[in-house]
């Protein structure tokens, strides 16, 4: 592979990403809004804090401004800061680093594929596949962890093939730490790095070097968490072990989430939940990670390279991630966790896809008399064009929508703006706390304190409002089931004073 090949793939990837980003003027959804909003606060000098609560797991006890990153990890916000956010560049500046990171995925994937066979055409095919990432494509230009996880995952598997084994263990530890700084499930990669460390007598200290690299990267954050939350891994995240539905993530108070309550549902219900999660996650594996078309090629390429330690370690890490997101965190896993975590494997999967295609064409030439070069060009071009078409369709439906001038991606942001205008017209002060579905997104638009509507009835809502001093409630069509009656027939109830409705959204004032 020549440098110009990598540069060509990088440029192609960047152009595709810029085409998607053209229709994205806001983060788009809660995860990306969280990272962007907290990065804005750092840029403004407010430190690692957030003026909202999107869950009650941390038991913040009514504080107005709370420490940030008690549940999610900080690296995406730090990357947003690197784009010139401190200079007031807004969302375009915040996502600049994400575009550059995501544009690097195709050449990195090509380098990984080249490390398997040293065949240029296979590497270029792998890079082309990475450029049209289908379901992942809408999320790569925004302020989320997808691009970071793909880059770190690709580097991880590339480093396993390093000709400088003395540097590899330490580098693997560094990457594991960066992956943990990106996502809470990143600790899995520390285990993979330890397994990958050479057990030979000459490298007895390799596993220690892995741990050292990890601690140098993630250790300072663990210390910060210990000082701020009293736990090295943040505040309250382990309570999600005892969820019985996804909506219980918003339970108030979170002390209700206990092992006894979880176990009391019975083993049959627990297993049923995990069977459902497994089905959802396997669909994600086929449709998202395998992009449907590539799934058989991945299997073929993996079988061809089965003696490569990276394939074995990659398969083990994938199974570990699937198990974590199915057995341990089934609801979070099935509702997007496995989709996020699986991004780390995509460079390896694209590389194996190209290897699988080469193996298929070689078989056809040997057994069916195909013309090798012609079959490669026809099949390879066809697959890339099909993936390009799928990617365009997904971007059209998820990002652009029906009107080019008003992209669907920004609908959430514009809706929050409209809700805030109505709330101000009803007399809400700038510092009044509001209860909403999406506190990070609403706080981004309004710069006012916001807390999530708890998963419970009106009494639970009022109890949370009293503790966190909420003055207003915005009740949308997407609301907790126990509030169905209040939504279907909005009315004043106790300290909850009904104000008005607008486009299917109800506004209430919560009296002291």
Name the helicity range: 55-70%
Q: Roughly what fraction of the amino acids lie in strands?
A: 5-15%
Question: What characteristic shape results from the CA principal axes?
Answer: globular
Q: Tally the helices.
A: 21
The total count of strands amounts to 8
N-to-C SSE series?
HHEEEHHHHHHHHHHHHHHHHEHEHEHEE
Low-pLDDT runs of 5+ residues are none
- The residue-averaged pLDDT reads 93
Structural class: alpha/beta
Largest sheet: 6 strands, mixed
Q: Oligomeric status of the shown chains? A: single chain
Q: State the strand order across the main sheet.
A: 2-5-4-6-8-7
The whole-angstrom Rg is 24 Å
Terminal residue distance: 69 Å
Number of domains: 2
Question: Could you give a short description of this structure?
Answer:
The chain is an alpha/beta fold and 512 residues long. The chain has helices at 3-21, 30-43, 75-81, 90-103, 105-117, 120-131, 146-159, 168-182, 188-196, 206-229, 259-263, 267-289, 295-304, 309-328, 330-341, 346-367, 372-400, 411-425, 439-446, 458-468, 484-488; strands at 49-50, 52-53, 66-67, 433-436, 450-452, 470-475, 496-502, 505-510.
């Amino acid at each position: 592979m020549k440098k110009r090949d990598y540069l060509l793939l990088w440029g192609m990837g960047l152009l595709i990403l810029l085409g998607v980003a053209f229709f994205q003027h806001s983060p788009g959804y809660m995860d990306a809004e969280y990272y962007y909003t907290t990065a804005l606060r750092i840029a403004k000098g407010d430190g690692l804090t957030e003026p909202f609560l999107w869950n009650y797991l941390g038991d913040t006890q009514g504080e107005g401004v709370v420490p940030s990153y008690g549940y999610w990890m900080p690296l995406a916000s730090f990357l947003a800061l690197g784009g010139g956010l401190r200079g007031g560049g807004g969302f375009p500046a915040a996502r600049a680093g994400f575009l550059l990171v995501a544009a690097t995925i195709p050449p990195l994937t090509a380098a990984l594929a080249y490390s398997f066979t040293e065949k240029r055409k296979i590497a270029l095919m792998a890079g082309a596949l990475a450029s049209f990432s289908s379901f992942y494509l809408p999320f790569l230009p925004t302020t989320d962890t997808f691009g970071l996880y793909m880059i770190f995952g690709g580097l991880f598997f590339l480093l396993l093939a390093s000709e400088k084994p003395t540097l590899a263990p330490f580098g693997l530890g560094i990457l594991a730490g960066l992956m943990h700084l990106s996502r809470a499930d990143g600790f899995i990669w520390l285990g993979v790095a330890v397994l990958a460390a050479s057990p030979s007598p000459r490298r007895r200290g390799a596993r220690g070097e892995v741990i050292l690299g990890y601690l140098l990267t993630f250790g300072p954050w663990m210390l910060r968490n210990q000082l701020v939350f009293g736990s090295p891994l943040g505040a309250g995240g382990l309570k999600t072990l005892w969820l019985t539905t996804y909506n219980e993530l918003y339970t108030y108070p979170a002390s209700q989430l206990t092992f006894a309550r979880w176990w009391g549902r019975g083993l049959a219900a627990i297993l049923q939940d995990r069977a459902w999660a497994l089905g959802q996650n396997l669909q994600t594996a086929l449709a998202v990670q395998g992009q449907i078309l590539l799934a058989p090629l991945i299997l073929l390429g993996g079988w061809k390279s089965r003696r490569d330690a990276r394939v074995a370690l990659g398969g083990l890490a994938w199974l570990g991630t699937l198990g974590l997101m199915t057995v341990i965190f089934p609801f979070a896993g099935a509702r997007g966790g496995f989709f996020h975590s699986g991004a780390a494997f995509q460079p390896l999967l694209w590389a194996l896809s190209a290897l699988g295609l080469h193996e298929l064409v070689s078989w056809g030439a040997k057994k069916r008399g195909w013309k090798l070069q012609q079959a490669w060009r026809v099949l390879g071009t066809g697959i890339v064009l099909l993936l390009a078409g799928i990617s365009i369709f997904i971007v059209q439906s998820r990002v652009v929508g029906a009107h080019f001038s008003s992209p669907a991606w920004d609908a959430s942001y514009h809706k929050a703006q409209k809700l805030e205008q109505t709330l101000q017209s009803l007399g809400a002060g700038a510092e009044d706390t509001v209860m909403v579905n999406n506190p990070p997104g609403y706080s981004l638009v309004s710069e006012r304190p916001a807390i999530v509507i708890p998963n419970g009835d009106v009494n639970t809502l009022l109890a949370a409002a009293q503790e966190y001093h909420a003055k207003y409630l915005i009740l949308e069509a997407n609301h907790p089931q126990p509030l169905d009656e209040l939504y279907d027939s909005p009315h004043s109830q106790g300290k909850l004073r009904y104000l008005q409705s607008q486009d299917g959204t109800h506004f209430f004032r919560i009296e002291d």
